[in-house]
């Protein structure tokens, strides 16, 4: 398994600056809905969780693709979309265990992180250094719920490394 | 109009009486003259809300506007202005907030939302790129901010929806209810939430899937890189990230500007106990920011409540912190935090609430009112159990709270006591700074178009106390000395123009003003690269001045004259008792003369002169004022 983007939710401020510059770099416009990184937010639980492709080994998105448009780049281990093959059915979106994938609202092709060929724009732009390259895979949402039950939200806040909130 | 860059190009007008909505095209003249946000709102309010209408009637219009920068990758550029005629002051109502709402409006393809009329039953409005839905909100009516936020988000089922919301205080008719964005970022001054609730609108939810394009990408990128670099190397960067504005409490104590014990003392010995420094040191968990912010200043912190439960809370700026600690004589930080959390959840303005409570406390402690008036509440300084009870009473307009819920000016009239102790200008309660210690701020409070508020001028540079800056900027060294009086007219009008422009761009004042990073030259470059239209530095300069004058014309129509540009008696007559500003009063009249002269307003009446309005291209305003028989001098 190769490198992919990791995130530290304790550092992320939820400003979505990464989303803006990702969409700008790839699509030439500013919009979170055209971004390949997504910040999951909850204003009441104070959660800001940047989510990108974890390059799953079993790659459920690639498995369900009827035309084989999602393939792994053998040299880097990164998943990529062959746009000519993609028919925009959205099966991959439902299959993603992180709820990460979404379709470009205009072209209907999946927005899949390509790591900007090794120099990710989001990492460069992040004001709080919450993003980095890593080999570690995040637990999926189901795994989090299994492990932490109703404290799921607080566990998210601390990036899955659950610790009891210490109040002085 | 050809292809628009930056702007979405559409205005959404919603008539609640008829349950109709339509798009209007954005007028290019409006763009060139007023940029966006506060400017758009002021213009429309001037044109569409005639003087004398009842602020809480269907005739009033509530507007939410954002600017051309919102939704682009420009740092700190996504704020919104909420405006209407204010029920609290009866003049211009206008409040600004951050969050993610402004950008979402742009992605949904709108620059401004106008609400008119009144819905029959409680509703919330769900806006997307393609439609506007009126949804039943009967089951959310009465719910607190956090409950309703959770409920509406759950009903829509999309965490990317951005919500503007009012709380139970607004619904009950408390005159200083706020509109809350993202549950924790209120536009709370001047009672905009009360206007929204009077129209039976519980919330406005927006979800778009569009995008914003800029006209000259390479210029824009270069500018952003320059700004980013200036921000990251700025001396205020880390303090702001760690403490936000709460650091002002301790710093303010040093210069004796705190509103302690209802402005009787500028300095207290327990400031450190309730300071932002202590809060940051002990309780901070992480930072959060508004959309596209590179100086995230909103902090998430955990603390223990009085019932031993812990709470994770967010935000807390200086105004709320000082309001619920030093202003009411409270020495316990956590109890103050609890009170702030409560009044926010009920949907009230923290500044106005702190004034009405501290005013009542001063009357009680002077023996001017007793338990007969307060309904049995003992309002000793720092008695937080009474304060918590009183906050609830205000929000639900019960008991003694009913009188206080109309703001301090009306409360003093109703009670027939403490008129001189009611600290407000034009009906808007004063913020947490003593004008005797900050004279430029004092002048700003007196002349601000919405009442006693610092965010109309914010002459932050005054705190530097450096005469060299004053000499360089205004040719008057005293202008940047906080206890000086000369040159303050220049200082305040200069910063009022910048504030009006920045509020219309909807860029954060932290960037453009307090950190002093975005000058007129940069703003002109920014507007040109984003919109592709021509905005020279001189054009841009005139925009701020035009907005200030238009707002002045609006409040002149509502009857505001020079006599209303004043401050409460204590600041004009009683010298400060303790601290670094001991012995000072504020010499307002002298500064006012200078200010009117700089502004080009009539010295006797405070009405903008014809030549001033003409210079700014406000010919129709001259006609309008003349038609209304308002004496306007040349």
From TrEMBL, chain A:
Pfam families (UniProt xref)? Fer4_11
Renumbered to this chain, the signal peptide range is none
Q: Which InterPro entries match?
A: 4Fe4S_Fe-S-bd (IPR017896), 4Fe4S_Fe_S_CS (IPR017900), RnfB_subfamily (IPR050294)
Decide whether keyword Metal-binding is in the record.
yes
Locate the 4Fe-4S ferredoxin-type domain: which residues?
A: 43-75, 77-106
Q: Which residues cross the membrane?
A: none
The entry lists its GO molecular-function terms as: 4 iron, 4 sulfur cluster binding; metal ion binding; oxidoreductase activity
For this UniProt record, the keywords arranged alphabetically read as follows:
4Fe-4S, Electron transport, Iron, Iron-sulfur, Metal-binding, Transport
Output this protein's name: 4Fe-4S dicluster domain-containing protein
